[in-house]
Structure formats: C-alpha cells, structure tokens
Design brief:
Belongs to the class II fructose-bisphosphate aldolase family. By secondary structure, this protein is of the alpha/beta class. The chain is 47% helix and 13% strand. The structure holds glyceraldehyde-3-phosphate, 1,3-dihydroxyacetonephosphate, sodium ion and zinc ion.
C-alpha cells in the first residue's frame, strides 16, 4: 500500500533502522527494488527526480510505481518527489499522487546557486503547510552537497551547487538545523556531510575529514527527534566499476560512501539514505558484460533481465545492511 514518508520514518526510528530511497526512471529499476523488498520483507521508498519525469513522462513514472503497489500489496511503498526545486514542482507531484515531496530550498530554483537560510525557510515552510493539509510528507535540505576533499566544493557531475563552496556551506550547522526544523516543521531533514551526487565523490577512500559522520552525531544530539536524510549515498561498488571497465567502459577510479559508514549514520538518526548511482552502475555493468559475452543476442529482454538481477542484489544488500529487511 502507498504510505507517507512520515509513517515509514517514524516506524524506522522506533525500531532503529534506516531505509534506502532508490531513484527510479524505468521498469527494470522498479522491478528490482520491489522483488528485492518482497524477498526480504522490507518497506520501500521509491523516488522520482524532475529528470526522471522528463525521461519517462509523468504518467509512465506514476503508473510504474502504482503498478508496484498493485503487484506487491503487502509492501508499504512511499512515492517520493526527489529534489523539488520549487513549491510549484512539489504541488505538481502531489497532484500526481506522490505521498511525499522534497522541497530542496538549499539551492535557488536553478538548482545550482546556494540559497540563503531565509529563502530556504520560506519556501520549505510554504510547502509543508500545503502538503500537511493533504497528508503528504515533506523533506527539506539544509547545507550544500559537495566535496570536502580539497577544502572546497567544486562539483564535477552537473548536480547541485556550482563553483567553490565554503567549508561552512558544505557541512550543516547543528544550531541552524534546529532552527530550520522548528521554523519549517519538516518531516525529514537532508544534511550536508561531504557527500555529492554521482559516481565521482571521493578520489580516495573517504576518511573522517572528507566524510563527516561526526557531524551527523552532532546534529542528532541537537535534534534527536528529527529524521535525518543522507543524499549522495551510493557506495560506488568497486566490483561493478571493474566490470564496466573490463567490458568497454572507461570510468576513472573513484570511491563512494562505504556501507558501514552509512550504518554508523543510522545509529545516529539517519532514516532515509538516497541511492541512485549504485543501481546505474550495476545496470550498465551487467548490460555491457551480457552484450559482450552474447554478441549474437538481439532480444533486449535478455540483457534487461541481467540488469534487473544485478540491481536487485544491491537493493537486497542495502535492505539487509540498513536493517529495513523484515520490517514490512
Ligand atoms: O539527485 C540526483 C539523483 O541521482 C537524480 O538524478 O536528476 O539525473 O534523475 P537525475
Ligand atoms: P547517489 O548519486 O550517490 O546515488 O545519490 C542519489 C541522491 O542523493 C538522489 O537524491
Ligand atoms: Na529526496
Ligand atoms: Zn540527492
């Protein structure tokens, strides 16, 4: 059944687990996420970005998630709008049937320029007022995603803030977070701790200086009743990176957020963990490998079944590691 984000995250907090929130754009991703959840009895968060709606078309995206709910009626499913850049985008998502929206007021509507605290509070609060009136949950974001590696936040993937960000902008301030939650009444708060979207997060395995799990602990100590959200939380599986490159790809060496660091975050208030890149990499790696090894095949269902299997294995591993397995 379709449920709100608030319902799921309250249950997650009461039972000390976290939920992966997977981005979806197509049938194979939805199938992989649902089949894995069914096998390990996990609740599900599926999220659609503005880019996903542009790719699939709003009716296709909506019906894919509705089809998942119909096929797996015993699994609670949240249909979440990822990174809404404006109140208008959030309203459209609510009209479309989403049970949860993210108002990302950390950036201006161009999705690039860092916003002021006042702007962020105003747009987020207005979305909370409208959404709560119709039973829809709201995720807000305070702080800008970006790399702490070289002391500045230069983005390489075209997502999120552009140019150089200060250390302060890249790490959410615990006192500001408390003020933000009080003023906006968001159901969940995305925080910045040095992660970024896409595959190119860290040029070497992250340390406490580049992935600030300690900041999660400080924020959680300040606002223990707020559900925290980690964005840019793909682990960038090294085995899939190798397979992609072994079968014709050319991805540079790169590292993601280790699963054990996410689990440490979950011990300190993280309840929603956004993952897109890991499924993209598994999908591309499985496709490249299948086509290279089966050059005579031309039925897309053959390689699409392989990509689904590859994504499903990652989904299952995350449900188990984050503790949502068995909680549906
Ligand atoms: O926010 C980032 C997600 O990975 C969605 O990416 O905008 O390319 O769909 P997208
Ligand atoms: P990744 O690119 O690390 O998968 O992050 C996805 C995300 O944060 C979507 O909002
Ligand atoms: Na989101
Ligand atoms: Zn994100």
């Amino acid at each position: 059944a379709l449920v709100s984000l608030r319902q799921l995250l309250d249950h997650a907090a009461e039972n000390s687990y976290g939920l992966p929130a997977f981005n979806v754009n197509n049938l194979e991703q939805v199938k992989a996420i649902m089949e894995a959840a069914d096998e390990c009895n996990s609740p599900v968060i599926m999220q659609g970005s503005a880019g996903a709606r542009k790719y699939a078309g709003e009716p296709f995206l909506r019906h894919l998630i509705e089809a998942a709910v119909e096929m797996f009626p015993h699994i609670p499913v949240v249909m979440h709008q990822d990174h809404g850049a404006s109140p208008a985008i959030c309203i459209n998502a609510i009209k479309s049937g989403f049970s949860s929206v993210m108002m990302d007021g950390s950036l201006m509507t161009d999705g690039k320029t860092p916003a002021t605290f006042e702007y962020n509070v105003n747009v987020t609060r207005s979305v909370v007022e409208m959404s709560h009136a119709v039973g829809v949950s709201v995720e807000g974001e305070l702080g800008c995603l970006g790399s702490l590696e070289s002391g500045h936040g230069e983005k390489e993937d075209g997502h999120g803030a552009e140019g150089v960000l200060s250390h302060d902008q890249l790490l959410t301030d615990p006192n500001e977070a408390a003020e933000f939650v009080k003023l906006t009444q968001v159901d969940a708060l995305a925080i910045a701790i040095g992660t970024s979207h896409g595959a190119y997060k860290f040029t070497k395995p992250p340390t406490g200086d580049t992935l600030a799990i300690s900041r999660i602990k400080e924020i959680h100590a300040r606002i223990p009743n707020t559900h925290l959200v980690m964005h840019g939380s793909s682990s960038v599986p090294q085995e899939w990176l190798e397979i992609i490159n072994q079968f014709g790809g050319a991805m540079p060496q790169t590292y993601g957020v280790p699963v054990e660091e996410i689990v440490e975050g979950i011990r300190h208030g993280v309840r929603k963990v956004n993952i897109d890149t890991d499924l993209r990499m598994a999908s591309t790696g499985a496709t490249r490998r299948y086509l290279a090894q089966n050059p005579k095949d031309f039925d897309p269902r053959k390689f699409l079944a392989e990509t689904t299997k590859a994504m499903k294995a990652i989904c299952k591993a995350r449900y188990e590691a984050f503790g949502s397995a068995g909680q549906a």
